[in-house]
Design goal:
The structure holds two protein chains of two kinds. Chain A is mostly helical. Chain A has one domain: Orthogonal Bundle (ABC transporter involved in vitamin B12 uptake, BtuC), CATH 1.10.3470. Chain A has 15 helices and two strands. In chain A, helix 8 crosses helix 10 and helix 13 runs antiparallel to helix 14. Chain B has nine helices and ten strands. In chain B, helix 3 crosses helix 4 and helix 3 packs parallel to helix 5. Helices cover 38% and strands 26% of the residues of chain B. Chain B has a domain of 69 residues. The chains are: A mainly alpha, B alpha/beta. At the A-B interface, helix 8 and helix 9 of A face helix 2 and helix 3 of B.
């Protein structure tokens, strides 16, 4: 890693880590950062299969939801600590990804994208129906034990900020490594041209399966941190289409297939969301925030289709 | 020793018979040219041998092993290397990374690094190692595709019109590379080509396909004199 990247990245991470120590800082602002970090890590996870692997998963929320429900269920039902439960949750997410991949990755075209949407919506219905396990429409509340580190529960949001930050930095370093690794090159080759990848000796099916499982496990970890922070999960949040779309935004805005893209994109999206929300409240224009948010996102898609990272790269490459 | 054997191969697309009972073998170290008019079935044959398309009936053997149902990546690992009629590179990877993808899969262990460097040098691409495909000329893109195809373990190189659309000098440069691969590394070469001077310069043997069947098989000198080939493909001018 270049010294400049290390200094900039490390400095930013340190600045975020120190936010809770700012005198008089409101819990609300720390919670916004926690929300942003969760959002970023979801984008980082989706980026592995969609950005590096070129496989458009439109129902990625299913891995988030399955992991969130799993860890809550294990804790409420069996008293299993989320520190242990998160491994089960991530493994379940990865297993589900392998099953979806097994059924769809041998076909070309839109089957995979459609299958992920269908499965996600199917899980939403199942979660609403299985009230005994999932709490139905109302969702599942995690039994609160006060500040109990073994239960990954805290009265304030600061520990979650630090945990989420560690995961975001970890995902960033992992993506940087993946981009240069043998698996990463395979994924990128498959993304660019499946036939040429196969003709180069790449097992296209196995590559997609491994990439999808890794991405799903990462998404699952984000689901675990989410449910531990909010201490509740419901079918809409877990499996709804809104969640699935949200997951894609950080990488799309920041730059697909790059390590820093989802971080930039997630930060921009959350800042934008908070700013438009504040403006809509102050100006008493209900719904205006969603409208402005949508217009800005449309602008990104139209004028910077390769995301902010792609835009910056193009700027740098353009002779002055 | 036989490197490639195509045995009674047929392929239909609905009612259209694209290949009809095609039989031929390619000896180790040979340079074979597959020629024929458009729609003769050359590309289909290429795709089936490469594994990108399933055979209808018949059998493909590579180095004595039945690979008819073997996926393309396993054929590549056995040493069957190919280019595409329309150049297909990894658009978002650099020149070196394009080669590295194949080297990783076919050159054992740390041999991948050496294979990439060696291939870059052989195809005169070292200075362009960090460039991306959209920054390359047509000739450089064709060189890169051949580089990616032949890096690592390559025992049969199948070139699909890789020498078309080039200037005389560019074409000569690539012909020289292919000859060196054949001579110095014992690579068997099968090429589909429309540019007859290139085919005549490279191939020691030609197979002519017409309407999915082999109408001639022989040396370039025999082929240009073959009345059936003249009528179906070359025309009277070729004899002059």
């Amino acid at each position: 890693m270049r010294r400049r990247d290390l200094l900039v990245g490390g400095g930013m991470a340190l600045a975020v880590a120190l936010v809770p120590f700012i005198p008089g800082i409101n819990s609300y602002y720390i919670s916004v950062i926690v929300r942003a970090l969760t959002f970023i890590m979801l984008g980082q996870a989706w980026n592995v299969i969609a950005g590096l692997g070129g496989q458009l998963s439109l129902g990625h929320g299913v891995f988030f939801g399955v992991a969130a429900y799993a860890v809550a269920f294990l804790f409420n039902g069996f008293g299993i600590s989320p520190w242990l439960g998160l491994w089960v949750a991530m493994a379940l997410s990865a297993l589900l990804a392998l099953l979806i991949g097994l059924a769809t990755f041998r076909s070309r075209g839109v089957y995979f994208a459609l299958a992920t949407v269908a499965i996600s919506l199917g899980f939403e219905k199942v979660a609403r129906f299985l009230t005994a396990y999932t709490g139905g429409d109302a969702g599942l509340a995690v039994n609160f034990r006060g500040t109990a580190p073994w239960a990954m529960q805290f009265r304030g949001p600061a520990p979650f900020l630090w945990m989420d930050l560690v995961v975001v930095v970890g995902f960033y370093l992992f993506t940087r490594w993946l981009l240069r690794s043998r698996l990463g090159l395979r994924l990128q080759a498959v993304r660019d041209d499946e036939d040429a990848a196969a003709a180069s000796g790449v097992d296209v099916f196995a590559t997609k399966m491994v990439g999808f499982a890794i991405s799903a496990a990462m998404t699952g970890l984000a689901g675990v941190l989410h449910v531990q922070f909010y201490l509740a999960i419901d079918p809409g949040t877990a499996f709804g289409l809104f969640q699935a779309i949200q997951i894609q935004l950080p990488a799309l805005i920041g730059g697909l297939g790059t390590a820093a893209g989802p971080i930039l994109g997630g930060a921009i999206a959350i800042l934008l969301s908070e700013a438009t929300n504040w403006w809509a409240t102050v100006s008493k224009l209900q719904g205006a925030d969603t409208l402005v948010y949508g217009v800005v996102l449309l602008g990104v898609v139209l004028f910077a289709p390769a995301g902010v990272m792609g835009f910056l790269r193009r700027k740098r490459a353009t002779p002055r | 020793m036989i490197s490639l054997k195509v045995d009674s191969l047929s392929k239909d697309f609905g009612g259209l018979k694209v290949l009809r009972d095609v039989n031929f073998t390619v000896e180790h170290g040979e340079i074979l040219g597959l020629i024929g008019p458009n729609g003769a079935g050359k590309s289909t044959l290429f795709e089936i041998i490469g594994g990108a398309m399933a055979a209808g009936r018949g059998r493909i053997e590579l180095f004595g092993r039945d690979v008819t149902r073997m996926p393309p990546h396993q054929r590549r690992r056995l040493g069957l290397c190919r280019t595409f009629q329309k150049i297909r590179l990894f658009a978002n990877l650099s020149v070196a990374e394009n080669i590295r993808v194949a080297a990783n899969e076919t050159a054992a262990g740390s041999g991948a690094d050496a294979a990439v460097e060696e291939t870059l040098a052989l195809l005169n691409l070292s200075a362009l190692r960090e460039a991306h495909p959209d920054e390359l000329t047509l000739a450089e893109r064709k060189r890169l595709e051949i580089a990616r195809a032949m890096t690592g373990t390559c025992r049969i190189l199948m070139l699909d019109e890789s020498l078309s659309g080039l200037t005389h000098d560019e074409s000569e440069e690539l012909i020289d590379v292919v000859r060196r691969l054949n001579r110095e590394r014992d690579v068997t070469v099968v090429l589909v080509e429309h540019v007859m001077p290139v085919v005549m310069a490279l191939a020691k043997r030609l197979i002519v396909l017409h309407h999915g069947t082999i109408i001639a098989d022989g040396t370039p000198e025999q082929i240009v004199e073959n009345p059936m080939v003249i009528e179906a493909y070359l025309g009277e001018g070729a004899r002059a």
